[in-house]
Design brief:
Shape: globular
Structural class: alpha/beta
Number of strands: 19
Strand order of the largest sheet: 14-13-12-15-16-19-18
Strand content: 25-35%
C-alpha cells in the first residue's frame, strides 16, 4: 500500500502563519508545521508542530514550503533537506513569494503582475521550485534546476505546463478539432483544457496503474495503427530506456497527418549524454539530475529525432513572446515544446 503525500510548512513563526493563510485560501491542505528543534508548542491553528528530525523520519512523499524570510538561511535548510531525503521531497522557498503576494491582500497591485494562463488567476509571484545544487549548478538545463517563478499556488501548474498550454492553444487546432488524442502522464490543467472540446475522443495513459484511463507503455502501445490525431508526452522520454522504440510506437499509432507534441529537460551546454553503466539511483541523480532519468538531452535533440523519421518544429517563449509577456505568464525563457510530424 502506497503512502500519501503530506504537506509541511517549515517555520512556525509569523511568515509560517502568513503562508498558511495564503495556502489555505487557495485550497492547499497543510498537515504539519516544522521547526528545526523539538517545538515548544504542540499546535498552531489545530495543525501539529513537529521537529525537523521527526519530519524526515516520516514515510511517503513530502512537499515542504520554507517560510523563512532570509534567503540564505532558507537555501541552507533546503540543501539540508535534499541531502537527507532528496528522493521523496519537493521543497519550495517561499520568502519572496509571501512578501509579494501579501501586497495584494493589503490593496496593492490588485491585478497582480503575473497571470496563470491555465487557471486565469492573477498574483504577484509564482512559487519557486527546483534544486539549486549538483548538476544544475554546473550546467544550464532547460526545465530543471531552481526557478523563482515556477508553481501556481491556485492550480498547481508549473512553468513547463503553462508553456505547453500556450502552445496547444495557439499552435494547434485542439480546441476546435474532432478526433482522437493520446496523452501520456497527463497534467491536470492540460487535461481540463482538452476535455472542454466534447468532440475529442480523449485517451490518457501511464505506466503506473490507477493514474489514468489505461495502463500504457510508451514502448508497447496497445492501440491500433493510425489511431490518433495527436499524441502528447511532456517530460516522459527522459525516463524511457528504449527511446527509439517509443518514437517508433508513437509514429505507428499516429494518423498519417497526425502530430506528436512533446518535450523533455534539455542541457544547452552539451550533446545528449547517456551511459549504460549509469544504473543506480545515486549515479543517475549525479549524471542526469534525477534518480529516474536515463539520459540528459542536449543541444542535438532536433537532429536526434529527425534521425528517427520525424519533421520537428520547435516553439520557445523567447521566439514567440516579448520579455514582458514571458515574465507575466511565468514561462522559462528558453523552454521548448516540439511538434513533430511523420516524414
Amino acid at each position: 500500500m502506497g503512502y500519501t503525500t503530506q504537506n509541511f510548512i517549515y517555520g512556525a513563526g509569523k511568515f509560517g502563519k502568513l503562508l498558511l493563510q495564503c495556502l489555505t485560501e487557495w485550497g492547499k491542505r497543510i498537515d504539519y508545521f516544522v521547526e528545526t528543534q523539538e517545538p515548544a508548542i504542540a499546535k498552531i491553528d489545530e495543525i501539529p508542530v513537529i521537529s525537523f528530525e521527526r519530519m524526515i523520519k516520516m514515510h511517503g512523499r513530502k512537499i515542504i514550503f520554507i517560510a523563512i524570510q532570509n534567503d540564505k538561511t532558507a537555501r541552507e535548510i533546503q540543501k539540508k533537506i535534499y541531502t537527507v531525503d532528496v528522493s521523496n521531497c519537493t521543497v519550495y522557498l517561499c520568502g519572496s513569494f509571501i512578501n509579494e503576494n501579501l501586497r495584494i491582500k493589503k490593496g496593492m497591485h490588485l491585478e497582480g503582475k503575473r497571470h496563470c494562463l491555465i487557471c486565469e488567476n492573477n498574483l504577484n509571484e509564482f512559487l519557486p521550485a527546483g534544486i539549486q545544487e549538483g548538476i544544475f549548478n554546473r550546467l544550464h538545463i532547460i526545465g530543471g534546476g531552481y526557478r523563482k517563478n515556477c508553481l501556481c499556488p491556485y492550480c498547481k501548474a508549473v512553468d513547463r505546463e503553462r508553456w505547453l498550454y500556450y502552445v496547444l492553444k495557439n499552435k494547434t487546432d485542439i480546441s476546435e478539432m474532432s478526433g482522437r488524442i493520446l496523452h501520456f502522464a497527463p497534467e491536470s490543467g492540460i487535461s481540463e483544457y482538452i476535455k472542454q472540446n466534447a468532440k475529442i475522443d480523449y485517451y490518457t495513459g501511464d505506466i503506473a496503474p490507477g493514474r489514468t484511463m489505461h495502463v500504457t507503455d510508451i514502448t508497447d502501445i496497445q492501440y491500433r495503427d493510425n489511431t490518433f490525431d495527436y499524441v502528447i508526452s511532456n517530460h516522459i522520454l527522459e525516463h524511457i530506456l528504449d527511446e527509439k522504440k517509443a518514437a517508433s510506437e508513437i509514429k505507428r499509432v499516429l494518423k498519417p497527418n497526425g502530430r506528436w507534441i512533446f518535450s523533455f529537460p534539455i542541457c544547452t551546454d552539451k550533446k545528449t549524454y547517456e551511459d549504460t553503466e549509469v544504473v543506480t539511483e545515486e549515479d543517475r541523480l549525479r549524471e542526469y539530475g534525477q534518480k529516474d532519468h536515463v539520459r540528459l538531452y542536449g543541444n542535438d535533440y532536433v537532429e536526434r529525432f529527425e534521425d528517427y523519421g520525424w519533421n520537428i518544429s520547435v516553439f520557445s517563449p523567447q521566439k514567440e513572446l516579448t520579455s514582458v509577456e514571458i515574465d507575466r505568464f511565468g514561462f522559462i525563457e528558453d523552454d521548448v515544446i516540439m511538434i513533430a510530424t511523420k516524414k
